[in-house]
Amino acid sequence: MSDEAEQSRILIIGKANAGKTSILKKICSETEVPIIRDVNGKPLTETETLDPMLTHGMYDIENEIIYPSRPGFAFHDSRGIESGSMDKVAEFFSRRAKLSLKDRVHVAWICFPLSNAQPLGEAERCMPQLGPNPGESRHPELSVKTSLMLATVPAVVVFTEYNGLEATVLNNLRYEGRLSMREAFRAMSDATEHLFKEQWLNRIYTSELPKPPFVRLKG
Q: How crowded is residue 136: how many other Cβ atoms within 10 Å of its Cβ?
C-alpha cells in the first residue's frame, strides 16, 4: 500500500450475529474500547454510540472504527445485511470509490457463521449483483461477494464459529452414527472437514466466480 493510504480500510459484511464483533476483538483487543468517528471525522461520545460492544451502536456503515492498539486499521461494519441495509452497502462502495485512496475500501471481509446455520441451497450457489430484493435470500452475502469481485475490491471470506460446526458433527456421530465418545472424537475432524467442503465451500466457490481466500475461525 502506498504512503497515501496509511491505514487499511476494511468493510466487514455479514448478517447479524455472524461473529463480526468477535473478529474485531480477536484481532484488536478483548477489552479495549474503540474510537468511533462519524462520516465527518467527528469522534462519537459514549452516549451517541450507546455501548458499541454491547448494543451494536457502531453499526452505521459510515462510522469509522479504530482501535488505539491497531491504528493501521480502520473498520466499517455493514450492519446486519438482512435488515434492509444492502442499498447502504452499494451506496457506500460507490461513494468511497470516488474518494482519495486513503478513504476507499481496501478489502472486504465477508462473514459466514457456521454454528447453527443452514447450508446454502441450490439456488444460492451463484447470486446476481446487488439487486432490488437481496434480503429475500437466506444468504444475501453472496450477492455482495459477487458485486465486490466485479468491482475488483479484494475480499476475504471469513467462516466463523467453526467449533459450532464441529459440535454439530460430534453430536451427529454420537447419536445418529451410534459411536462412542472416543470414536466420535476420532472421526470428528475428518467428518467436519467433509461437511464444511460439501455444504459451504463447494456451494460458495463456484466456477462462475473468482475465488477469494478464506479463513476459518473458532469461537
A: 9
